[in-house]
Amino acid sequence: MVSSIPKDSQSVSELKEFYRQMVLIRKFEEAAAKAYSVGKIGGFLHLYIGQEAVGVGSIAALTPKDYIVSTYRDHGHALARGLNPKPLMAELFGKGTGISKGNGGSMHFFDRNAHFMGGHGIVGGHISLAAGIAFASKFKKEDSVTICFFGEGAANIGSFHEGLNLAAIWKLPVVFICENNHYAMGTPEYRALAVKDVSVRAYAYDMARDHIEGDEVRKVRDHVQVAVERARRGEGPTLIEVSTYRFRGHSMSDPAKYRTKEELEAYKKKDPLMRARQELELGGIKTEELDKMDLEIQNQIDEAYQFAETSPEPPLSQLHKYVYAEDK
Amino acid sequence: MAILTYREALNRAMTEEMEKDPSIYLMGEEVGHYQGAYKVSQGMLDKFGEERVIDTPISENGFAGIGVGSAMVGLRPIIEFMTWNFSLVAIDQIINSAAKMNYMSGGQFPMPIVFRGAGGAGGRLGAQHSQAFESWYAHCPGLKVVCPATPKDAYGLLKSSIRDNNPTIFIESEVLYGSKGEVPEQEYTIPLGLGEIKRKGTDITLVTWSRALGFAEEAAAILEKEGISVEIVDLRSLRPLDENLIYESVKKTNRAVVVEEGWPVAGFGAQIAYLIQKNAFAYLDHPVERVTQMDVPMSYAANLERMSLPNATRVADTIREMLQ
């Protein structure tokens, strides 16, 4: 199964960092699931568990000046961008210390400084926003690249078509990353996609395309890197489909009865964290060292949980604030 | 004082603002090479080039989203909808993205964007091209909604809208594009949320905006001959709303009628009627009335279209009944 043993110390330390980020996401979400089940988190909670290699690998291909546009499943992307888990967890708890001051919640993480341009809750609507951010980079003659995550369910809405067409005719510096986890809520891809391979839709826009498996984090990074560099050179957008799987249901309220246990078990054998761990061990990292790392991350998440729990709710005076921006 | 058409006033406002601020661009269908479907952007492509006057394919949802995304990173887009009828396919971007971005990000993303274009009803354009949608957008917190009725107001309000850091719905009246009026030569702006008394009177207050101002003025002229003195409040913007201007007028006249091009049910006139009864109840001698488009889609037939739209006769009749 393991085909890519890290060969030198640099690739070992790189993979170690990716592993750290993936474990951080996994443990963050496990803690969030726990908090949700005891009523500390409200609303919807869509977990990223199983898909970690996509976010971590893709975002590793970016520099701080680049932009990320995310979906309603945005926790993993935010953590992969390096955002502090404390304000992220506090946002889930609806606290004033949250990354969006408690106004956003699970689906709406924003961090302007980190160029993290939001989790967006309307499926596919954010695809043209990403094209707009890329449009602005081109307009301002900056060489920033925008990456936009979405699921295969979003590929069927008009916004996908319009966003990709505009990005292609104007050669905008944007990379569209379809995280195909094979289910749009409870609808399997074979019932929703006339052509199953989303990436071939790139041909309709004369756009570069790629299709990869999403369980190997460095492979994801390498492929996204090619697309990011193409965009940075001014050669236009790319549509990448990354095949992945969510281990949980669509959201915490979904028991995912529409899929078989066997299917889930088969995908769990391709868990990107497990894979990265095996590769690190083959690259010479001791199990104890990885266990210690896991423990440190768990402590970090516990602190975030504690921070979220003890933070104050937003002041009531915030209710009317931010409806309109301050005057220029 | 120059005499300009409504469209020329809009063109002058955009041109002057774009000359001053390089982060402003104009985008939409036919705004560039075609010189604007209604010629509002006439000559702007030559002046600013294709990088700032940008033709799009027919994809309102897409280019509205482009505008919002670009505004998130500091540009100041003017997004033209050929008509507001087509904005309905972009309404997700306007409401779910533009109106809420600053709020749901905890104040991180102001949204300095103007959505503008032709609105309103008439001209025998049929059910899908004859609609007034300001009530729909005025429903949403986070948006500002502006509806100028004269060239002078169009110029001053558009400049304020472009300079505002919030998403502005700027609805131009399709039938007013060719109308003429005095526009001061000197640059000026009109603050959003500031209405104007367009005609002073003592017997009844007529609250209106955009094209319906014309019906109101015509009715006031008819009634003047009958000894009835009508005061006309032109709101100019619905969000923010110049509430006090309405109340001050009602306190004087003790009666109010709202005249609007849109449909009656859940229309903006209903909100004004509510506000007047809530805040000026003691001054009212009569329930607040409304003159609106009929509660039907627009017919193509000339006689039915005429019947459906509000007009001066209906306004005058309503006022006469109220004064009996």
Description:
The complex is a heterodimer of chains A (328) and B (324). Chain A has 328 residues and is α/β, with parallel strands linked by helices. Chain A has a single domain, classed as Rossmann fold (3-Layer(aba) Sandwich), CATH 3.40.50. Chain A has 10 helices and 8 strands. A 6-stranded parallel beta sheet of chain A has the order 2-1-3-4-8-7, sandwiched between helices. A two-stranded antiparallel ribbon of chain A has the order 5-6. In chain A, helix 1 (9-37) runs antiparallel to helix 9 and helix 1 packs parallel to helix 10. The longest helix of chain A is centred in the N-terminal third of the chain and has 29 residues, at 9-37. Chain A is globular, with a radius of gyration of 19 Å. The N and C termini of chain A lie far apart (57 Å). Chain B is α/β, with parallel strands linked by helices and 324 residues long. Chain B has 2 domains: 2-183, Rossmann fold; 196-323, 3-Layer(aba) Sandwich (Rossmann fold), CATH 3.40.50. In chain B, 36% of the residues lie in helices and 19% in strands. Chain B has helices at residues 6-20, 44-48, 60-72, 91-98, 101-104, 134-138, 151-163, 212-224, 243-253, 268-279, 302-308, 312-323; strands spanning 2-5, 24-28, 53-55, 76-83, 114-119, 144-146, 168-173, 180-183, 196-199, 204-208, 230-234, 237-239, 256-259, 289-291. In chain B, the strands form 3 sheets. A 7-stranded mixed beta sheet of chain B has the order 3-2-4-5-7-6-12, sandwiched between helices. In chain B, strand 10, helix 8 and strand 11 form a beta-alpha-beta unit. The relative contact order of chain B is 0.12. Chains A and B meet through helix 5 and helix 6 of A and helix 3, helix 4 and helix 5 of B.
